[in-house]
Write a structure and sequence with these properties.
mainly alpha; 0% strand; 4 helices
Length: 128
């Protein structure tokens, strides 16, 4: 399981690195390179989101159904609180930072989900 997560994370970091380079060049061209900090804050929020989700999934694998449901619900609540806190802080800094943070989070979330779905389809094809 750890090997799968590490492989998945490495692939995600490679794609995210390429996306970050494109975003940084676009921000530099627009004269708004200062927003890269907000994008990185969004990335960190996205990685923490996935980290908490994977940890809860890992823990719930060996629990009873009721205990697993409680674990997953508490994980969702923690992730939503984290998102709320980060997005609230970004709103206090300004609309530009809020858009940068939410864009960074959305990029990590969407790339992660696309890669996860893709790996599940490739694993299903290998098993047949």
């Amino acid at each position: 399981m750890k090997e799968t997560i590490l492989t998945y994370t490495r692939k995600l970091l490679k794609v995210l690195g390429a996306c970050t380079a494109i975003i940084a060049l676009s921000l530099l061209e627009a004269g708004r390179l200062y927003l890269i900090g907000g994008i990185i804050a969004g990335y960190i929020t996205g990685f923490v989101w996935y980290g908490v989700m994977l940890r809860r999934l890992w823990q719930s694998a060996e629990m009873t159904e009721i205990a697993a449901k409680k674990t997953m619900v508490s994980g969702v609540i923690l992730r939503l609180l984290l998102m709320g806190a980060v997005f609230w802080a970004a709103m206090q800094a300004g609309i530009d930072y809020f858009i940068a943070v939410t864009g960074g989070f959305a990029l990590v979330y969407l790339l992660g989900m696309i890669m996860l779905i893709r790996s599940n389809f490739s694993n299903a094809e290998k098993s047949q």
